[in-house]
């Protein structure tokens, strides 16, 4: 399954929980509590609360746990993009240098033939404005993208393709009204 | 400036902000139609026109709608809470005019010249005349438009700071001295008073100056972020103006290579993201902290913790810009990781803010929900949905798949702005309207608007966002057809139309309550509007 779909399912469940919580909160907060809590009996115009209350502390610990877990997962090699970008040490088997100028990708060859399952490196250089460099499957889903800052910067990315076939390239960053035309069909062929 | 004048000024800001909301909304629906490749009149925009509209759209809605609504509300609420007048009437009126002229200058420049660098203004696109084909004449007025907007923003914040700190003119003996107010504000903002009270064993410490210390601290804190934002964005406006002038004299044309694109992008996002923290999150939180306790007539839950949260958010906001740079591979990896971790910190600060507001509501059971409370509750939901979508992709790993897709602009940006921020602004309008006009807006129509706006915003945001999961890019026209994205865009268009109908209901509610003629009268009758003016004291006592 594509990594995007895992996050999509997680997010859909999350927003279902958020919406349900909001509706239930609205319904139940309109009803009088069966037993008045201590807080309700306290005067409302004095500052009687010191420090965090227990339920607030629990909520804070929960949030901190989410932050810790989220960062650990997304910076770990579990997700391919983080693995290739932050953890992969092996040198690329090939480096593909692509020039961009005047709203055109200048490819070294077409299609660029890449071996499956090997680390390859893309180096994209813009000679005028900021572009994007995105590789897409034939069904339109994104494999990866990066920004292409203009010279003097070189924009590099390591990747491992795990499926053979043809891939398209688009500019993923707005670079002017001609940007929608920056599309190269079958720009990459992954073999193996 | 007397109370009636402040009411009229606030009403003017609100009405103009709603006009800009309508203008931005029309643009939004037109662009949705164009992205959907609908072959209908007015929707067949060519790419130049489409991107010019896409450039003006956020300026109109962020500055024309959101900022003007916030300014109007605070020009009334801050004096109301502090029990003192606005520092400068002239500056308040100047803010109003400068904002309108600035926003309209940008809108007109984009409309007439099709200048379209987008709000991102990534260097060197805004000055890439030869590459992008801009009319060189368009750069200067666009830059001037930005300068006017941010001059207005700075003038507004100066007026806010001065209202809090400086003595009124003429000074009265009863009011606290500005140095005392300044000291109290800083002491309250940084929790020093709580610490001192704890050390001294003072059981029931209360702020000496402010009736609603959290609100005042929130406004102060939001003003710090948005002032930084205004300085940076105003600086970009100055930069564009300098280049614009140089392009009018071909022999003196400046080279775009004078500016480093990566350094520029870092500074730009550091400043621009302050809107998200200052105007969107902190002002929103400050308004929740004011409205909910005020309407419920009870104390905010965990007030001392909330103040610490505001302080924490101040620190977080200074290092959060890096999540906009995750896809820039020349960015140092240390900054990428820092940007990710600090951005996740907003989950904690916003999470605690929501908790405090919800607990305040929960402890007040049975809550009699009026329109402002309902809108605050849905606003919290909007921030929770939009905020988590932002956090999910604001990290090194997932950003590689989601950056610049419809996910970001749909589920994150639009849900957060339309339902999160938009609902808060509506809540303020519903709360202030009786104070400003002496008339109550229809609760039934408010409910209809709430449902339409929420459903429309969610349907549109989800339609766009789920297309993003499929790989659909934002800021992209699929000239040869949308292919697999078509159903998602159809859904998003339906959502946009539902959203627009929510706006129409809101306008109808206002017009049927005060009348169209009375609404217009506030612009030419400086002191006595046709709508009844009721004193704040009367309204407050009724509440």
| Strand percent estimate of chain B | under 5%
Please describe the biggest sheet of chain A, giving its number of strands, its sense, and whether it closes into a barrel: 5 strands, mixed
Most extensive interface: pair and counts? A-B, 86 and 94 residues
Described by its quaternary structure, the protein is heterodimer
Structural class of chain B: mainly alpha
Portion of residues in helices of chain B?
Answer: over 70%
Name of the CATH first level of the domain at 368-543 in chain B? Mainly Alpha
Helix-strand category of chain A = alpha+beta
Report mean pLDDT of chain B, rounded to a whole number.
Answer: 88
Query: Could you spell the SSE succession of chain B in H and E letters?
Result: HHHHHHHHHHHHHHHHHH
CATH-assigned homologous superfamily of the domain at 368-543 in chain B: Cytochrome c oxidase-like, subunit I domain
Q: Give the uncertain stretches of chain A in residue-range form.
A: 41-48
**Count of alpha and pi helical runs of chain A:** 4
Number of strands of chain A: 9
Radius of gyration of chain A: 25 Å
The CATH homology group name of the domain at 91-191 in chain A: Cupredoxins -  blue copper proteins
Global Rg of chain B: 23 Å
Query: Low-confidence stretches of chain B at least 5 residues in length (pLDDT < 50)?
Result: 529-543
CATH architecture of the domain at 368-543 in chain B: Up-down Bundle
Strand order of the largest sheet of chain A: 3-9-8-5-6
Please outline the major beta sheet of chain B: none
Describe what this molecule looks like in 3D.
The complex is a heterodimer of chains A (192) and B (543). By secondary structure, chain A is α+β, with helices and mostly antiparallel strands. Chain A has a domain at 91-191: Cupredoxins -  blue copper proteins (Immunoglobulin-like). Chain A is built from four helices and nine strands, in the order H-H-H-H-E-E-E-E-E-E-E-E-E. In chain A, the strands form two sheets. Chain A has a five-stranded mixed sheet, with no helix packed on it. In chain A, strands 2-1-4-7 form a four-stranded mixed sheet. In chain A, strand 1 (94-101) and strand 2 (104-106) form a beta hairpin. Chain A is elongated and about 75 Å long. The model of chain A is unreliable at 41-48 (pLDDT under 50). Chain B has a domain at 368-543: Cytochrome C Oxidase, Chain A, CATH 1.20.210.10. Helix content of chain B is 73%, strand content 0%. Chain B has 18 helices and no strands. In chain B, helix 1 packs antiparallel against helix 14. Chain B is globular, with a radius of gyration of 23 Å. The chains are: A alpha+beta (192), B mainly alpha (543). The interface between A and B is large, with 86 and 94 residues.
């Amino acid at each position: 399954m594509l990594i995007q779909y895992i996050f999509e399912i997680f997010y859909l469940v999350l927003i279902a929980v958020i919406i349900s919580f909001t509706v239930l909160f609205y319904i139940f907060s309109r009803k009088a509590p069966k037993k008045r809590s201590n807080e309700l009996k306290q005067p409302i115009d004095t500052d009687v609360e010191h420090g965090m209350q227990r339920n607030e502390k629990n909520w804070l610990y929960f949030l901190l746990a989410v932050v810790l877990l989220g960062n650990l997962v997304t910076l770990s090699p579990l997700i391919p993009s983080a693995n290739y970008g932050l953890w992969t040490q092996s040198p690329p088997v090939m480096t593909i240098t692509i020039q961009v100028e005047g709203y055109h990708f200048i490819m070294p060859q077409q299609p660029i033939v890449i071996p499956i399952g090997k680390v390859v490196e893309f180096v994209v250089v813009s000679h005028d404005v900021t572009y994007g460099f995105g590789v897409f499957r034939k069904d339109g889903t994104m494999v990866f993208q990066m920004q292409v800052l203009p010279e003097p910067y070189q924009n590099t990315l390591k990747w491992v393709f795990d499926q053979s076939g043809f891939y398209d390239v688009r500019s993923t960053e707005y670079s002017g009204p001609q940007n929608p035309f920056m599309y190269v069909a079958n720009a990459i062929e992954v073999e193996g | 400036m007397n109370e009636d004048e402040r009411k009229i000024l606030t009403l003017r800001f609100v009405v103009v902000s709603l006009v800009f909301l309508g203008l931005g909304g029309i643009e939004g629906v037109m662009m949705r139609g164009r992205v959907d490749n609908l072959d209908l009149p007015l929707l067949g925009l060519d790419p130049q026109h489409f991107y010019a509209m896409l450039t003006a759209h956020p300026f109109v809605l962020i500055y024309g709608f959101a900022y003007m609504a916030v300014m109007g509300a605070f020009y009334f609420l801050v004096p109301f809470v502090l029990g003192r007048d606005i520092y400068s009437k002239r500056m308040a009126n100047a803010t109003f005019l400068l904002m309108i002229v600035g926003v309209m200058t940008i809108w007109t420049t984009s409309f007439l010249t099709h200048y379209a660098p987008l709000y991102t203004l990534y260097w060197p696109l805004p000055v890439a005349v030869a590459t992008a084909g801009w009319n060189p004449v368009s750069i200067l007025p666009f830059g001037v438009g930005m300068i006017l907007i941010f001059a207005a923003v700075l003038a507004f914040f100066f007026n806010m700071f001065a209202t809090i700190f400086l003595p009124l003119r003429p000074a009265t003996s009863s009011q606290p001295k500005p140095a005392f107010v300044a000291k109290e504000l800083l002491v309250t903002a940084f929790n020093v008073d709580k610490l001192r009270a704890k050390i001294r064993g003072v059981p029931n410490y209360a702020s000496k100056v402010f009736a609603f210390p959290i609100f005042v601290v929130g406004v102060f804190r939001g003003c710090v972020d948005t002032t930084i934002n205004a300085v940076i964005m105003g600086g970009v406006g100055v930069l564009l103006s300098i280049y614009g002038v140089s392009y009018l004299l071909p022999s003196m044309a400046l080279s775009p290579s004078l500016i480093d694109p990566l350094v520029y992008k870092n500074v730009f996002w550091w400043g621009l993201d302050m809107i998200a923290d200052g105007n969107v999150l902190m002002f929103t939180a400050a308004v929740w902290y004011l409205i909910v306790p005020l309407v419920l007539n009870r104390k905010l839950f965990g007030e001392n913790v909330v103040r610490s949260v505001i302080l924490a958010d101040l620190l977080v906001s200074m290092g959060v810009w890096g999540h906009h740079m995750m896809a820039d591979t020349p960015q140092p990896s240390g900054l990428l990781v820092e940007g990710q971790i600090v951005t996740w910190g907003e989950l904690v600060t916003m999470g605690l803010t929501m908790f405090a507001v919800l607990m305040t509501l929960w402890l007040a059971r049975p809550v009699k929900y009026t329109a402002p409370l309902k809108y605050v509750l849905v606003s919290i939901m909007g921030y929770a949905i939009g905020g988590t979508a932002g956090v999910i992709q604001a990290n090194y790993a997932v950003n590689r798949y989601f950056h610049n897709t419809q996910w970001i602009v749909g589920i994150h940006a639009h849900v957060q702005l339309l339902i999160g921020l938009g609902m808060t602004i509506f809540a303020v309008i519903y709360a202030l309207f009786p104070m400003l006009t002496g008339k109550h807006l229809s609760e039934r129509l408010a409910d209809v608007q709430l449902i339409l706006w929420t459903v429309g915003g969610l349907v549109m945001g989800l339609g766009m966002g789920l297309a993003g999961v499929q790989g659909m890019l934002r800021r992209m026209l699929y000239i040869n057809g949308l292919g697999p994205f078509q159903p998602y865009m159809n859904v998003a268009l339906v959502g946009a139309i539902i959203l627009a109908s929510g706006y129409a209901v809101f306008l109808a509610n206002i017009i049927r309550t005060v009348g169209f003629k009375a609404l217009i009268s506030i612009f030419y009758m400086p002191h006595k509007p046709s709508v009844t003016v009721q004193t704040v004291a009367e309204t407050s006592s009724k509440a």
